[in-house]
Amino acid sequence: MYEDMVTARYYEERLQEEYMEGKQPAFDISAGPIPGELHLAAGHEASGAGVCAHLRDDDTVTAPHRPHHIAIAKGVDLKRMTAEIFGRETGLSKGKGGHMHLFDPDVNFACSGIIAQGCPPAVGAALAAKKRNTDAVAVAFLGEGAIDQGGFLESLNFASVQNLPVVFVVEDNDWAISMPKERVTDVRDGSKRADGFEMHGERVDHDDAIDVYEAAERAVGRARDGNGPTLLEVQVHRRMGHFMGDAEGYRPEADVERHKARDSIERLAEDLRKYGVTGDEVDEIREGAENRVDHAIDWAKEQPEPDPSAAHEDVFANPPAGAAGETSTTAATDGGEE
Ligand SMILES: Cc1ncc(C[n+]2csc(CCOP(=O)(O)OP(=O)(O)O)c2C)c(N)n1
Ligand SMILES: [Mg+2]
């Protein structure tokens, strides 16, 4: 978990430097080696690492617009993910998706910029696992700002009534862009929404990685053992603006300081020392993670840019031979390569 967490933190520090190149003095979002928005997850690492520590490659994870720490913990290919973020041809989606649209079928990972969007597909993956009689599970991560979305509540209902092996993980960082949590809900403990669906709910009130790990062990174990879904909320910390370039004029300085004061990575390093891991070993893990990140970024920057003529490729998919959708409009009328 420590390795995943330091990898994610350092990865985002490096992305920040790369991202700002060419974007100043007036913030130009399309300039520089990483065009478009960039949402960083510094302060969220304990949730990605603590939950994904219980997952296998055949378990499905869907993540929201702030996905890096989750993708790293799920084992998404770091080099191809970085190439995707830099818009390169060898990226996970051939450079067309960018940082909010990372898909790695090898480890069953997907994310989306549409908030709560990952919930229905995770429920679908859980239904598929159940129908196939496997013990695979699915986990949907989302922010606390997304828990009034219909797609989330419908997913809770369907998962509960079908007793599906799915875990919903709400990362509560107190903010949805510039909207503080208390202005949109009177329910401080989001996991209570599970009660309305007769589902198990649990909140971890702080982001100590080991506590998240233990709560996730219960939730993932429940799903894997056929005992149904869980709604798990984890208090995390938004150490950065909503996106890179966010001046955060709406956010009191004291709140920024409060969120920065708790660093789950430093706390886990202390715990490791208490458990007998030496300082040298901790440093070694961190240095190894930093080397891996530097290597992935160097590699990605050497990759070719996609040919503009490829822009319309992979927009549609032909259904596999024998599938019910064979007569779909695309296949029937186009006859093209899509
Ligand atoms: C369906 C939908 N509505 C609105 C948006 C715009 N939007 C992007 S992020 C965001 C807030 C997300 O807050 P939260 O879910 O708490 O996640 P956080 O950014 O705090 O990690 C909104 C409203 C969107 N992407 N999708
Ligand atoms: Mg939030």
Automatic annotation (TrEMBL):
Signal peptide: none annotated. Its cofactor is thiamine diphosphate. Residues 31-308 form the Dehydrogenase E1 component domain. Pfam families: E1_dh. Residues 321-338 have a biased composition (Low complexity). Keywords: Oxidoreductase, Thiamine pyrophosphate. One of its GO terms (biological process) is sulfur compound biosynthetic process. This is Thiamine pyrophosphate-dependent dehydrogenase E1 component subunit alpha.
